[in-house]
Amino acid sequence: MRYDLVIFDNDGVLVDSERLSNTVLAAYLTELGHPTTYEDSIRDYMGGSIHRVHDTIRERYGKELPPEFDQEVLARTLAAFERDLLPVAGVVDVLERLQADGVPYCVASSGRHARIRFSHRTTGLDRWIDETRLFSAEDVGQGKPAPDLFLHAAVSMRTAPERCVVVEDSPLGVQAALTAGMDVYGYTAMTPAHRLSGATQLFPDMAGLLDLLKS
Question: Does this UniProt record's set of keywords contain Cell inner membrane (predicted)?
Fold first, then answer.
């Protein structure tokens, strides 16, 4: 294998959460008087941290979101996860193979630790991902598209950035990985390929990731 560490994004890559979380976010922003469609939310916030939502609303409307916004979004999102969240098709096979082959891997997500852990417990992925493999935008000063999160994950896993590959499905994540000096495989099951055009490789099916990692 050409890499010493595989870094997975979480939402949309490990768990099929983007549709759920962006539906929740769009509805809540609209409820607060900031009309947002599901498509708007995917375009503007997919792959970003909660700070990006605050910054965007502030820039567009000159208003602050309410103090309870973060906790309310989290509560509504976790409720949706508990009802409907599933792992991304094929990702269990990928994790099983990496673990069996002794390939180091971890997760670096814009989501909060509580949300990531909940998504893994709900889908059963906590069997393959413990706390030592989990990194959040909460751990660093800036979330994606800044490279800080991926660099933090590499340092924590004792791996040079150039020996890492990131698996991402958002333009913000691809930009962050490239800025960190890492290769990045863009997962196009949900995101149109042209939006991830800067990625080192593109793949539409999680079953194809293992072949990419071996090449």
Answer: no
